[in-house]
Amino acid sequence: MSTESLKYLNPESQTDLKTKVFPRPGQNTTGVINWLTTIDHKKIGVMYGMAALFFLILGGVEALLIRSQLWNHNMDILSNREYNQMFTMHGTTMVFLVIMPLSAAFFNFIMPLQIGARDVAFPRINTLSLWCFIAGGLILNLSWICTGGSPAIGWFGYAPLTDTRFAEVLGDMGPDFWIFSLQILGLASLLASFNFITTIINMRAPGMTMMRLPVFTWMTLIVSFLIILAFPAITIALVELMFDRTYGTNFYDFLEGGKPHLWQHLFWIFGHPEVYILILPAMGIISEIIPVFSRKPLFGYGLIIFSGAIIGFMGFAVWSHHMFTTGMGIVATSAFSILTMLIAIPTGVKIFNWIGTMWGGRIRFDTPMLFALGFITMFMVGGFTGIMHSSVPIDAQHQDSYFVVAHFHYVLIGGALFGLFAGFYFWLPKLTGKILSEKLGKFVFTLMFLGFNLTFFPMHYLGMIGQPRRTHSYNEGHGFETWNQIATVGAFILGVGIAVGVYQFVTAAFNKKLKPAGKNPWDARTLEWTLSSPVKEYNFARTPIIKSRDQAWENNYGDKDKHSEKEPLGDHGVHMPDRSWCPLISGIGLFVFVLGMLFRKTIEVSDNFLATPYEVAIGGCSVFILGIIMWSLEGPGGYHLFPKENEE
Amino acid sequence: MSEAAAHAIDHHEPETSTGIPNKKVLMWAFLGSDCMFFGTLISTHLIYRKISATVGGNFLDIREIFDIELTSFSTFILLASSLFMALAVSAIHKGNLTSTRWMLFGTIVFGAIFLGCQVYEFTHFVHAAGNELTLSSYRGEPHVFGSTFYVLTGTHGTHVAIGVFWLIGWLIYSFTGKMSTADAMDIECCGLYWHFVDIVWILIFPVVYLMEYAF
Amino acid sequence: MKILFNKLQAISIAILPAFILFLGGCSRVDHKQSALDPKGIVSQNQYDIFMLSVWITIFLFCAVGGCLLYVLWKYRAKSAQEAMEVPPQSHGNSVIEVSLIIASTIILVILAIPTLQGVVLMNRVPDPNDTQTLEKLDLNRSAIDGAITVNVTGKRFFWVFEYPQYGIVTANELIFPTSRAVRINLRTEDVIHSFWLPKLAGKMDLMPGQENFLWFIANQEKILLGKDANGKEVKYSIDDAMPPVFNGKMRERIFAKQKFTDEFEAVGGLFYGQCAEFCGNSHAYMSFRALAQTDEDFNSWVKSFQNAQNPNLQPSAYNSENEYSKGSLVTFSDKSLGESATREFRAITEVAQGEAPNLSKKVWTQANSDDFEQGKKLFSSLQCVQCHAINRTGLGSKGPNLTLFGIRTSLAAGWMRNDKKNLTKWLKNSNEVKFGNLMWNGEGVDDNHPLRNLEDEDQKVKQLVTYLLGLK
Predict the structure, then answer these.
(1) What is the spatial distance between Cα A489 and Cα A509, in angstroms, rounded to a whole number?
(2) Cβ-defined contact of B17 to A202 (cutoff 8 Å)
(3) Contact A14 B26 (CB under 8 A)
(4) Which residues of C touch A380 (CB under 8 A)?
(5) Domain B22-49+66-214 in CATH: superfamily?
(6) Least CB-CB distance to A250: which of B147, B155, B185?
(7) Is the residue at C86 inside a domain?
(8) Contact residues, B window 49-78, toward A, CB-based 8 Å cutoff
(9) Is the model's pLDDT at C277 over the cut of 80?
(10) Ramachandran sector of residue A100 (left: φ over 0; alpha: ψ -120 to 50; beta: rest)
(11) Domain residue ranges in chain A
(12) Residues C143 and C244 in one domain
């Protein structure tokens, strides 16, 4: 089933293809080329996951350096500029290069399986979005070796600190790298989201109505809508900032009439939905796991989805609660305060429903379930402190203190990362075909849970007794030392836990000691568990006809009339599209283009240089356009597979 | 498992769950996102249009520099191009290749005229003696109007330019002889994009130009 | 089994006291910069709402968490066989769901009402005619009527405090009377900063191109109520908690009372504040102090500042033709200080017209020691004046105003105690103390700048220190 175009090649034109420069690699491609040119959603998901895990380790090392620096007062492990770079990079990495792509990895891998599709709607766009993400990650981290080093502006880069006027190193390029990497990462997210929206709306198997979609797929859909509506705001904000830095416009230059307030509004109009972009996928994962390990359907399925949608929608109406202390006036602060409190209700609904799901079930405590329970408790703490911040007078003390640091780590590690780890333990058997070691998994959970709470719980107190965030050092005589030391110890425990977990995931495919998983190791409920593990490249040999919400469960335990059926296999079998070089070429073109744009003024062109930055940019852009043209002309190609009845 | 080489059978576009082709859904999603792009830019402009760096005064009378006749003309041209685009889509659905080709050509020409007007306008504004509106100043005084004006209309112009190149692509393709009603879907997507860009201009024209004469 | 139990017991006996001691240590929450120890009306209000939210959330956490624990315990699969059972597949219960939604809405309303009241309180000084509100807040009308205004300007990386009612400027130490409301207008000259004074006012950002507002009024009763070294509540006298700043008593008291490194502040009238919005390399070093004063002491402080900064009190070279009122400043040339050097004197009695210069102690007091006068010269010749203003002299507003520097309690925007040792260290190499500070790294400062070459100039540094600390 290809969806790319309705024009299929006849055998004659396929011979033409061989004369092309970059023919689409066919069925028997193996090795590196297979991975570089793949358009299979499962492989793309794996690559997303691997890259994100790498960045998780990188961002984690940055976090540990930050914690080491705060071990005691007046430490000098890092200079203050290095520290400022470290927290900027840590924040940017964790948000854009870890949590979002990890979610994207699950979207890619799981979502098409859950709706009964053979791939996403636009497989090559999917690949392009992967390469854009990797290019963005590379660009962000290339900043370490350029003038001024990495950006030292904080992950929300408040204007006018990003203005060249206030650069603390001559010709500081850090903010430029930050701007361009966020732009290209935004492009990756947008492309992926268009794709997921189309896939979920259009490629559901027969009988898979919207109200039969698994919750995770629903959350994918909501998050994709959030992304396409929220990212434009930051893209424009960054374009304006880029113009300010490069071409002397006055968008954020207060001396010439610009308003730094505008940056904050534009950033948080993106930034608050972003928070839900980070947490909703994890909530979706949890909503899949808890029913499985309670052996009960989700309590209040409709309400959970509705509350997810409400959270997403209201996420656009509460952004200014990040700006309570910027002097917006009584009316605005009050209104945003009330709206922020309201958003706690749909969030609470989810927690009630998860508990309701477990009520009356048969609860097993396997690793995914442990992480899910960790998620619920930690997210509760983070949510409650969030309610505190929604009150303006309280926020007047909490804003920019360690209390806020504690709050968002409870939501993003205790929430998002725990949820994603739960997802790893839950779905990796589907990917590798082997069951992960429960013992090691529980060990990882213990370390992470302990380390996490040890790190971040004391920060609530630290914030209340006056430690501001983003300070590379604190003075003696404030009583911060003890609690910071506890936090640092906790951070290292958490770090070890995450490292062991990542090791476990990465080696899962090669570890020969692990037991085979079979189709449905957890006795799980949704459609992907009717497939073999690992999943065949065509996913479904025959398109299933869905009869109920928890199809895998109903097939095992349900009435006969709720069992899924299968569409007949046509005489031309399963059409598989060929792999393609074009997304990679376009991605490389984009990468080179951005590099050319970056080096606009700081690299002095000497005789040793082969090309000026402008030429590099134009060259990169040409490669990108060439890639797109080849893309549109290469046609679907493809081959047919004839799997047997039960081979799926 | 039995595998076989690719062979041509009467493939058909797979049925989608909603009955709407995938590409169209993608295009609509993109346009929704693009709305937010322009929404952000337009609101930036609205916030800034009356702000001046000089304390106490809005000394900017942009009417002195705007050439509203020219802009009205180019607005009309862009709207007219939408008609051609609609006719092109209708023609390709009917399989009338010649008509499609001419209509595409008309759209391209009108799009190009619009771009030309914009380029003329920009150069004129920047070089208007004594009245220069540049990215960062107006009459040599720091100002934000130029920033928002050029970035907003420039982004729109870039959209038109991309549309023109896309249409040129189709025009060239129409001469290869491969074009058929099977491409109707793709041209329709192109048309969606073109109409959207027009509609955005219908919003920009009053907000950026006419409003200066009203408020 | 028993051995294990004994072991556990032994461990817990060993750990428990340590744990209790530890908790005891944390039972004091009145750290120097603690928001948990409010000393003013606004911060008290913020604290009250915070505690309300804490109790609400603790209740919710116990309720929901307890429910979760109960469910986990009750419905756990007790055996492998039970884990394979199929429980009834219920899909939800709308009555329970709706009632939970209504319950959570009610809880939020409980928090929303004080929040809205708090927003108004934070942003508006109560109307002096609104007796009802004043009564509720337990405020005197005079406190509002006599409110003082302070214009705070944030700069990288220090604070300027300007008192427009009195025409005086100081830096990094905010002096305020406890009996009156303090209105604070916040501005910035460069990037965004945030004015955070936890014990008095919470925080508000300093936005470029915009003026923000914050106000507070300290509660003298609470300032006097402190804790001693053992954590016992003590009521201090005004002399103990808020000694006068203008004559240096406050500085002496703070220095005498405790070490800088002590965790808790012994002098109740001293408050710690901090920039809370990331503003660049040295953001962490951008703190400040606020010193509470009685009305009388505050007025004296204002007076001494007005004297120091009054442009009409400029010293002039002595001219025997003029008459001099008591207290006027005059300069005489003094060869012992160097070529064409002058020394400043102050008349202690009236000097009639035509009276010969009389340098006897009767009529003129010699203002200061040689070191002081030398330091004063150095302050100009080493280009300090380009950025720092002292009294009425000096061009610059780039650096903190150093008027009456000798009565300041802290140095380098509150980073260290203002004494001889620290000031010497600071002058010799400020970059070592506060990396990235703009005195060392600012515009126009390079390796040739005299400021960067004071490392081995002990004599000069000593003279500068004498001068700066002698400004009283």
Answers:
(1) 32
(2) yes
(3) no
(4) 61, 64-65
(5) Cytochrome c oxidase, subunit III, four-helix bundle (1.20.120.80)
(6) B147
(7) no
(8) 51-53
(9) yes
(10) alpha
(11) 1-37+568-648, 38-567
(12) yes
Whole-angstrom distance, CA of residue C344 vs CA of residue A468: 45
Asked whether residue C4 is assigned to any structural domain, the reply reads no
Q: How confident is the model at residue C209 (pLDDT cuts 50, 70, 90)?
A: confident
How many domains would you assign to chain C?
2
Q: Which residues of A touch C213 (CB under 8 A)?
A: 327
Q: Per residue, what are the HEC states of A240-273?
A: HHHHHHHHCCCCCCHHHCCCHHHHHHHHHHHHHH
Is the pLDDT reported for residue A58 higher than 90?
Answer: yes
Homologous superfamily of A38-567: Cytochrome c oxidase-like, subunit I domain (1.20.210.10)
- Residue B8: pLDDT band with limits 50, 70, 90: very low
Average pLDDT of the residues in C7-30: 57
Q: Answer yes or no: do A250 and B29 touch at CB < 8 A.
A: no
Q: Is residue A393 within 8 angstroms of chain C, CB to CB?
A: yes
Under an 8 A CB cutoff, do C33 and A363 touch? no
The neighbouring-strand residues paired with B202 are none
Q: Of C307, C324, C340, which marks where a domain is finished?
A: C307
The number of residues in chain B equals 215
The confidence band for C359, taking pLDDT boundaries of 50, 70 and 90, is: low
Domain that holds residue C245: 30-74+92-307
CA A575 to chain centre: 31
Q: Indicate whether C323 and C300 sit together in one domain.
A: no
Going by their DSSP bridges, the two strands C148-155 and C158-163 should be labelled as: antiparallel
Q: Best of B13, B15, B25, B38 to disrupt the A interface by mutation (most A CBs within 10 Å)?
A: B25
User: Are A429 and A436 contacting, i.e. CB atoms less than 8 angstroms apart?
Assistant: yes
The pTM is what? 0.91
What are the chain B neighbours of A262 within 8 Å (beta carbons)? 44, 47-48
pLDDT of residue A572 exceeding 90: no
Which of residues C307, C338, C373 is at a domain's end? C307
Q: Given pLDDT bands bounded at 50, 70 and 90, which one contains residue C182?
A: very high
Alpha helices in C198-343 (DSSP H): 220-224, 238-241, 249-257, 295-309
Of A166, A327, A385, the CB nearest to C207: A327
Same domain for C378 and C343: yes
Residue C121 in this model has a pLDDT that exceeds 80: yes
pLDDT above 60: residue B12: no
**Do A326 and C72 lie within an 8 Å CB cutoff?**
no
The nearest CA of chain A is from the CA of C111 a distance in Å of 8
* Interface test with chain B among A2, A228, A641, A646, by most B beta carbons within 10 Å: A228
